């Protein structure tokens, strides 16, 4: 890969994706709130949806949490408890299991949307496109497992990726450490950032609603006070 393209993809492109992700989501919520939904097709056929949706959401939530904590937690915060190679093996086993569960669920959802004529006719092109992109991303993620396993002794891949991610969120981008990384990781990273870029323009925006529902549980109690009405009484000649 040319060094200029490498620097753009891993030093500049992440900020473009994050800016579009945040500002685009805000703009869509402000302008098109009626499109802020997942467009469920449960009424057309519920059986395969139940299995596919549950497996997909369980897997994807675990993967999102694992990637966030695994990449953004500095090494010194966990080295007293677990070594870097042990953490990488834990990530391989847990992430591989969650990825497989998510892959099965998403495959069921994708097959259902393509194979059922009624669902296919009522589906937007963006619905199908985002499912295919997520499916490819899961395949790429599973393809990184053999490469991660080959680095299990020194945890090189995990440490390099964590350093890059932490530099991105602290506005100190440096993609030099990614130069010698296996291609599976790089393609997986670029497609993952592209999903954030496409997020505001797809059905994925309903994820924000899920986060809002969690915050709703911690809301303060609503204070309701009785309103005193000045009603006429019998003594004043009013109607009782």
UniProtKB/TrEMBL annotation:
Superkingdom per UniProt: Bacteria
GO cellular component: nitrate reductase complex; plasma membrane
Broad class of where this protein is predominantly found: membrane
Location relative to the cell: Cell membrane
Gene3D superfamilies named among the record's database cross-references: Transmembrane di-heme cytochromes, Chain C
Class of the enzyme per the UniProt entry, highest EC level: oxidoreductase
Keyword Secreted listed: no
Enzyme Commission designation: 1.7.5.1
GO molecular function, a single term: electron transfer activity
Protein known as: nitrate reductase (quinone)
Naturally occurring in which organism (per UniProt): Comamonas koreensis
Name of the gene this protein is made from: narI
